[in-house]
From TrEMBL, chain A:
<feature type="transmembrane region" description="Helical">
    <location>
        <begin position="39"/>
        <end position="61"/>
    </location>
</feature>
<keyword id="KW-0309">Germination</keyword>
<feature type="transmembrane region" description="Helical">
    <location>
        <begin position="298"/>
        <end position="318"/>
    </location>
</feature>
<feature type="transmembrane region" description="Helical">
    <location>
        <begin position="267"/>
        <end position="286"/>
    </location>
</feature>
<dbReference type="Pfam" id="PF03845">
    <property type="entry name" value="Spore_permease"/>
</dbReference>
<keyword id="KW-1133">Transmembrane helix</keyword>
<protein>
    <submittedName>
        <fullName>Spore germination protein</fullName>
    </submittedName>
</protein>
<feature type="transmembrane region" description="Helical">
    <location>
        <begin position="82"/>
        <end position="107"/>
    </location>
</feature>
<keyword id="KW-0472">Membrane</keyword>
Automatic annotation (TrEMBL), chain B:
<dbReference type="Pfam" id="PF03323">
    <property type="entry name" value="GerA"/>
</dbReference>
<protein>
    <submittedName>
        <fullName>Spore germination protein</fullName>
    </submittedName>
</protein>
<feature type="transmembrane region" description="Helical">
    <location>
        <begin position="293"/>
        <end position="315"/>
    </location>
</feature>
<dbReference type="InterPro" id="IPR050768">
    <property type="entry name" value="UPF0353/GerABKA_families"/>
</dbReference>
<feature type="transmembrane region" description="Helical">
    <location>
        <begin position="389"/>
        <end position="408"/>
    </location>
</feature>
<dbReference type="InterPro" id="IPR004995">
    <property type="entry name" value="Spore_Ger"/>
</dbReference>
<keyword id="KW-1133">Transmembrane helix</keyword>
<feature type="transmembrane region" description="Helical">
    <location>
        <begin position="420"/>
        <end position="444"/>
    </location>
</feature>
<comment type="similarity">
    <text>Belongs to the GerABKA family.</text>
</comment>
Amino acid sequence: MAQEKLHRFSIAMLIFNTQAGVVQFILPRTIATYFGTNGWIVIILVYLIVTLNIMLINAVYRLGKGKSLFVILQDGLPRFMLIPVYLVAGSLFAMIGCLVVKQYVLIYQMIVFPSTSDLMLKIFVDILVFLFVTKGIYNMSKANLLMVFILLMIVPSGFMMLGDFDLLRLTPYVFKEGHDWLKGFASVYAAFMGYELSILLFPYAEKNNKWLKYVHLGNSIAMLIYLLVALLCYGFFNYHELKYLSFPLLDMFGYLQFPFVERIQNFIFSLFLFSIIMTSGMYFWSSQQMYSAVLPKLPWRLLLFLIMILAIGVSYIPKSLIIVEQWFDVLSLLEIGTAVGLPLLALLAILIQRGRSKHHAS
Amino acid sequence: MLQFISKWVQAKNKKSGRSGNPQSSPQASGPVTLQNIQDQFKDCSDLTHYTLPELQADLLFFDHQLDPHAYERDVLRPLLNITKDELEQLLRRSQFVAAKDVVNTVHGILNGYVALFLPQGVYLVDAYGPEKRSIEQSESESTINGPHDAFNESLGTNLGLIRSRLKSNRLKVLQYTAGEISKTKICVLYIDGIANMEYVQEIENRIKAIEFSSLYDGTMLTQLIDDFPNALFPLFQTSERTDIAVSKLNEGKLVVIEEHSPSVIIAPSSFFEFFTTPDDYYNRWVVGSALRLLRYLAFLITICLTPLYVGITTYHYEMIPENLLISLTESRSRVPFPPIIEALLMEGTIEMLREAGARLPTKIGQTIGIVGGIVIGTAAVQAGFTSNILIISVAMSAIASFVIPSYIMSGSLRLIRFGLLILSGMLGNFGFCAGIALIIIHLAKLTSLGAPYTIPAAPVKPRDWIDIFIRGPFWALNRRPAQSRSPNTKQNKMKK
């Protein structure tokens, strides 16, 4: 039977879960540090800019008439120019995919298993990611849906914090006592990263333009979740306190009490393994797609295995969470460049292709 | 996919040496004579040879395969009441079919035909009707409300039960044979205009690809035709209940009946269908929905409760509220083992008790229950072997596993629980979540007859949720499930 296309809603959830991840636990602190009072407003501003970037990707799909990114690029640009692009983008995706796991594992090691080797935990998660990606994008989207349903069940528990939420803690001031806005902006923008991978989904999506709206839907859900988390943290703690909490969301969940269980923060953090598998999986899948364009004859599963082995090797270099975050700062800037650069390159290729067609026609 | 399954089955057959023995098949060469056919059945002492010298006729048959009334009505009485001259006229009757060759004759005799050897030629008369069990209630799928008749081992009876409920010429029955030696009949049922013909074609291909010496039951057949032979979960729903088979046909699915099996196969099936029962539809919809949700809760308890207990008591004591922590610590203070060993011991004991109870006769089975109850309930705690709270957890998990209507699914879930237990014992909540992620990844790749196994959750089909996660009111159940890919999606209004 014919392989089904990715369902629109699956794409929305794919984008949302690729964007969301460990960043939710850090985001309130980042916002409080760089933007000060009522820093949560910046999430909406960044969301609007990200929306423009998604519209750019949509334009590639529409002008490219649904063709794969690789076909669009190869139709317009010479292969020798494209190979470095594929290699750089593929390596960048692989490093992000790997560091997402590394960051999660280091945090887990810090809060639960201080005496366990982070490498052991990381290899454990990497095996899960490998198994996940080898199922192919269609099955990844199905697994992601099931994972998202479980993750979204956490959202109602956030409303249980409303009892301790105080509007006074938000203060009437906006962006007071913030600094390094540009750096802060890059950090918040990095929290939205993941949408740019939708450019690789063209051949797997339904052959109509409707699914493009669902990329926006996924991005909007991510924004709403970030907003909810940031607002809750601003009202639960205050922005002064937020600046000194490593993982404000985890601390907030620490106050939750149920009749049979309390201090569920590390269970909640464990559940975010689903999100990590998805985020890392999508980046590794994208990396494999890029490398497959360079080495089309190599079996894709073997290629994925080699990419993951290399990435794991490189990720062994940063030993602490602070260094991982520093690496992420650099990689995020490069990723923002890729998110804008790849669609622009594709548009250039389309223009060149059209120019050639007109020339031949005349 | 089909090629893969076929190759796999062939490879398995080669490995295990279970492929059909070619010598067991009759030799096609030679004329169809009494001597030749008797040679084919050499050393078959149950073969009956009956002679009618006045007609120069010989009859060969297996009397245990025959319906005595049909034999008397269609074979014996007509032959005894005629003279040699009237024989030609008698043989024009439709029940006398001329045998083509040796293979045809041998297969006819094996399938309950009477072989009639005459100077004019050899004829076969169908008198099939072996002993069969009467229609009874299903023991494995009992119900309180609704019809109580269940399928039995007779193919004809099973077909009759379905035909009597679906009086439509659109109900089609395709018949195949599988098994090198057993030559088991398999019938595929579908409703024309409702079922997707791609599924019919697919299942036909899979049945034809079976290369196995003998088939014994429908549940065995499911494993020979399923998409993933190594899947942890059953990929096809099986049932002994007639109302389930009929309702699934109405939903646009296929029903496969195997001769000599009371379990019919429903294809394609979704993971969530294993948590539904016909009782849901015989109750008021609110009650039916509550029961269905209870079953999903039972599913979660079955796989999660004991692993979470182990994970929390091993690594995350801080998650237990103070009041509960005191009683838990008291309860665990005398236990010399870590929670994982304690849990594995108890879960293992429960599984052994369940297995013993299932195999033993009912009266002894009750004794096992009492002995097990005392051993697990009292003695194990007093001896400091285990803690009270773990017993509650293990017992709740066991009870919850029995709430799941499908015994095969329940078995899969119990096995998964052991995996989660070990992972939780190794890595606490992290191991537990990794285990759940593994299950999800495994589930996501599974398909049933090529259709997604996790539908309607993934891919999302919200319209089907009303008949999967709850049991909606009948006015709302007006569409066939998306998994059926029916050309006629409206359930209450068929196209003409």
